[in-house]
Amino acid sequence: MLTEEEKQYALKKYVEFLQHPSISATGEGIRETASWLKEFMEELGIKATIEETGGHPVVYGEANNGGDKTLLVYNHYDVQPVDPLNEWKYPPFSAIIENGHIYGRGASDNKGVLIARLIAFSKYKGNLSFKFLVEGEEEIGSVNLPNYVERKKPKADAVIMEGAGLDTKGRPMIVLGVKGLLYVQLTVRTASKDIHSSNAPIVYNPVWELIKILNEIYDGERVKLKGFYNDIEPLSDEMKELLAKLDIDMEELRKSLGAYKLKGNIREIYIEPTCNIDGIYSGYIGKGSKTIVPAYAFAKIDFRLVPNQDPKKVFSSLLEVVKDRAEVEVFGMEKPVRTSPNAKVVKAMINSAKKVYSLDPVVIPNSAGTQPMGVFYDLGIREIVSAIGVGTPSSNAHAPNENVKLENFYKAIEHAYEFFNEYSSV
Amino acid sequence: MLTEEEKQYALKKYVEFLQHPSISATGEGIRETASWLKEFMEELGIKATIEETGGHPVVYGEANNGGDKTLLVYNHYDVQPVDPLNEWKYPPFSAIIENGHIYGRGASDNKGVLIARLIAFSKYKGNLSFKFLVEGEEEIGSVNLPNYVERKKPKADAVIMEGAGLDTKGRPMIVLGVKGLLYVQLTVRTASKDIHSSNAPIVYNPVWELIKILNEIYDGERVKLKGFYNDIEPLSDEMKELLAKLDIDMEELRKSLGAYKLKGNIREIYIEPTCNIDGIYSGYIGKGSKTIVPAYAFAKIDFRLVPNQDPKKVFSSLLEVVKDRAEVEVFGMEKPVRTSPNAKVVKAMINSAKKVYSLDPVVIPNSAGTQPMGVFYDLGIREIVSAIGVGTPSSNAHAPNENVKLENFYKAIEHAYEFFNEYSSV
Questions:
Q1: What pLDDT does residue A74 have?
Q2: Is the bond preceding residue B64 a cis peptide, omega within 30 degrees?
């Protein structure tokens, strides 16, 4: 159990971290936050360095405790953009505490998690060695991480990724894999300037042209790209069993997400690949009316992929459809991964979770979201798990009023501490 | 011919008018501009009043010269919004003059036209009586004009509408009718907040839902609304003849519009109804990537209608498609109209144009754009023509860097003056 003093120190560092903006999409505050983090890690006795990647730097740290096992702790210090700003009840980087919750961009995803692990590390007295790899580009698809990891080749027996947090019933989630990702922007340009819409019979409208392409990518139900579903790995019996155990209350989940209606089955969140439009823009979007044929239109699209889909193959199929009809920019490409439920790191994680939460954890074959597990898998590491988080479905990750219940933050410190001990001894 | 002094006075008032922002979509500067205009009209000896409409006011003026004919001069003092602001080389309300061109929002559409007519009026010495009806909502679909005109019932023998300007070859255009308009915004809401896109398998994406609706409205070539093409009035032989005479250089037009490619035939601009997307928005549209399922999506759509399509019927068919899947806002509904080529006002317009420009004017059955001719037609007036403009296809109406060649502005003053004389004597 944490002392009051330990809690106060942990909270102080959490607030400081949240008050450092670090928006990877725009670059705002990235370098300053990396420096702050390096200093904090040094304060805890970790040998830390800021390492260049060609993009936003990695904060890398090592602590050799003399044992024969090394745990690599992966996190990210960057956060999502904050818009729509007017929907925040407190400024997104103010770290205001209200009713036992802390509010701020990154509170849940994933500054709280990193602080919890670092505080737990500082309490840990065993002989497990640590490597901390904290990147600054997770929210923009970890663009430079694969090259960085390939060059650095950090040796480790197991990896713990950014944690999945708690489900609607407060049970800790242990996630054995990740979905992959392909994030692209398609831009159609039909003119050098907006044109009076009286010319619509003779000029091409970029939105209609974009919609034609989008209709060829997705039919409203299924992705239409060539071979998209072909490589999907069938679920193993163990995985099917894990999924069958899921007993998420859909109505509760719906409310916490703020969705008016849900579709499908909760299992699909883990096993169904998607084609999602994150944003679309063209022409006049202010108040009232303006009669123009816009000069250009764009859409931002993410494909979430399941094992064994290959983002590179999906991208090729996409290019075959788009041809020269749109400009294509890639903002992220990540491999899907699934780790065996029998791995040591998984067992240690389950045991420590039971101890701290007095509840059976929820074990999931892979996350609904994406984390760059693939780069560690490619190093030959087969013990990779995503767990120890601070958020819940109502934490508003990626949305306004992101928040974390402080109780969950303190629990995460305990969980990390117990896990380090369990894992050293298995 | 205008004296230097007359030109200077006209230009001074033109600059002043342009320096008054009057964006009907947002309301910016509307009341101030209406006051300025009323004072200017009074300065010229017109009995002017500001009349409430329930929206932006009408500036209404009368000048009784004792003859047996009254001409109603219709214009508007409002302008389109100015975005994208960063594409303007001068601030949109600076009225900068460079190389014999004046730059500013409204220069062509249609502040220059109104100034030209008012200056011509002040020179006119005949017995034709005038009514000036200058509205402030033309660019947002003349929402309150029908009710205003129906209440006011201004008597007149003929109406001249906002002028069509000059074609790519510098020939004055005389337009005998207008396309109709239906302008709507469709908004699809699927959640109360943006949701992390890892939930895409179980939540509805508002963009895909919006696209489903858009696909039911338009197939990329033709409007799919029920009965949309049924009421279209067949072209009369006279109208076919007018269209056959059109000899617009498509390549020149393409360049001046800034379009990369044109489709169809120039005649379609006058006889083909359209479904155009003026703007679309959803989710994250900043730099880089953000992985969300947006909470809502909207599209602004204008339908341009040809005689005898009825905007109310089109709207009903639209609602049948949309059902309860989107919120529908209406920003404009205008009837299409075509006046006979044998009307007196048309003959006077053609004769005066020939005199001033020493070129045969281009006579067109109806405009490609929309003006609220329908409300005057509904009063029983059958002599309605749109002519005497200052713009050309490269004037960038509705786009950044709207501009007018000063020479064309002065010519328009002369044309209006000659027209007043011609029309009094036919």
A1: 97
A2: no
